[in-house]
Design a protein that fits this description.
heterodimer, A: two-stranded antiparallel ribbon, 10 helices, flat, B: Arp2/3 complex 21 kDa subunit ARPC3, two-stranded antiparallel ribbon, 69% helix, globular, biotin transmembrane transporter activity (chain B), membrane (chain B), transport (chain B), cell membrane (chain B)
């Protein structure tokens, strides 16, 4: 059984920068479009252009490069695997190297470089969003972007409320799980030895209290909220107001500029 | 808004937090394969909450992860995980929760049924995973499927365990009278 003792706070890195001060809604839309642009870039020139924009974005955000690179960690092994697959199985183009059954072709190297570079760009640009915007801002932004769909019954406000509740309780539950695990261990429970059946049964006393408490907690919280007059999202005012400002207009112009450039550079 | 729906909404939010916690716990049952409790917690959430609120809890989990809270396995987080080559497996959770919930909401819940439901859910997750792996990684179908297949066996072991533990947990919650009335307590036959 392995826990991490520290409670992580998320990826957001507070800084004073153009990207940090933009409205979360415009950043969300920008990243969405930029991901489409990355897939549209099918020539070397277009690809170098989106790569340059991504690097410029990282520079403008004033976030230490090491934090940005950390965003690649979850996909590292799959990038390596993709490169290996492309290099050793692609049999097109001139033969560059051969030894027994191993053959490396020119097209294989090219494709490997292109595909891995595209995955890296995709993940870097996506991580810029979560590095420059706090989870709370993003929750507000999502609620606002989804609210036009309320007409069709989409629960925009409710979803944002539930996200905030989860954010609030994740650290609490992490701590609680740790406590339960220690309490069970002090009673002789072992999560890392004994037969398989024994270990499976060892999980039950760990999980059941978590679920039981969540039922009780939900009931209490619902009562508390209704006692304070919570009636859903209708006519509710906000403590944090989102504002579409000059910077967001600029970001919009930049998006259009990138779209036009990528379109022109495409084959 | 009725009290039950507010309570169920909060419950979904708390289950989302439980999945986040479970994703950080790994137990080694069979020495080479660490058992991450993530997909186990996802399956359990659907079994306990049913289709509507189960799917909502999973959707929340993906959204909370997407906005940068480290809730995915190994404290990974953020949009890059979702748009990366392996993001399809996470997005597949949402679809599989919906389908699994639909199947579970009908009739009695036995180990065999839980197992079949979990197999269907697993298949959906893997199909979504392979599609994104192929598109983002620009691979051919056979390569994407080849990578995917290496994970099927450990996942099969996991869902046998998930079906067994899921029924146990649900039965204990029913005994404690904690399952909401909308979920019929008599469904549990284990």
């Amino acid at each position: 059984m392995s826990f991490l003792n520290s409670i992580p706070i998320g990826q957001f890195v507070p800084r004073q920068s153009f990207l940090h001060q933009c409205d979360p809604r415009s950043k969300l839309l920008f990243v969405l479009f930029f991901i489409i642009f990355i897939f549209m870039a099918n020539t070397l020139a277009a690809f170098l252009f989106v790569a340059a924009v991504t690097l410029l974005g990282i520079a403008v955000s004033r976030i230490p490069v090491i934090y940005v690179l950390r965003g690649l960690k979850p996909a590292l092994w799959i990038i390596v695997l993709t490169v290996i697959l492309q290099v050793f199985t692609n049999k097109e183009g001139a033969l560059l190297f051969s030894w027994k059954f191993i053959e490396i072709h020119e097209k294989g190297l090219q494709d490997a470089a292109f595909v891995s570079a595209r995955i890296i760009l995709l993940m870097l640009s996506a991580s810029l969003l979560t590095l420059t915007t706090s989870p709370i801002q993003l929750t507000d932004g999502l609620e606002s972007l989804f609210s036009p769909f309320r007409k069709f019954g989409f629960p925009a406000h409710e979803l944002a409320l539930m996200m905030s509740i989860s954010l609030r309780f994740i650290p609490t539950l992490l701590e609680e799980t740790d406590k339960i695990a220690k309490a069970q261990m002090s009673r002789g429970a072992s999560f890392s030895s004994g037969s398989i059946i024994k270990r499976i049964n060892g999980i039950l006393p760990l999980i059941v209290p978590l679920f039981v408490q969540s039922f009780r907690r939900a009931e209490e919280l619902a009562f508390a909220m209704e006692a304070r007059g919570y009636r859903g999202g209708e006519g509710r005012t906000k403590y944090r107001q989102l504002r579409f400002g000059k910077r967001d207009a600029m970001l919009l112009l930049i998006t259009i500029g990138i779209a036009v450039t990528v379109w022109l550079l495409r084959a | 808004m009725g009290k039950t729906s507010l309570k169920m909404m909060i419950l979904s939010a708390l289950f989302c937090a439980i999945i986040a916690v479970c994703a950080q716990i790994s137990i080694t049952f069979l020495p080479p394969v660490p058992f991450t409790m993530q997909n186990f917690a996802v399956a359990l959430t659907v079994v306990i909450l049913g289709r509507r609120y189960g799917t909502l809890a999973i959707l929340l989990y993906i959204l909370v992860g997407a906005i940068g809270v480290p809730v995915f396995a190994k404290f990974n987080a953020g949009l890059p995980v979702l748009v990366g080559p392996t993001g399809g497996y996470l997005i597949g959770y949402i679809v599989s929760a919906f389908v699994m919930g639909t199947m579970i909401d009908r009739g009695k819940l036995t180990f065999m049924k839980a197992f079949i439901v979990n197999i269907v859910g697993l298949a959906i997750i893997h199909v979504a995973g392979v599609i994104q792996l192929k598109l983002v990684g620009s691979m051919t179908w056979d390569k994407a499927i080849g990578i995917d297949i290496t994970f099927i066996l450990p996942d099969l072991i996991k869902i046998i365990l998930a079906s067994y533990i899921g029924i146990q947990v649900r039965r204990r919650l029913a005994l404690a009278g904690l399952l909401p009335n909308s979920l019929n307590n008599e469904k549990i036959v284990a």
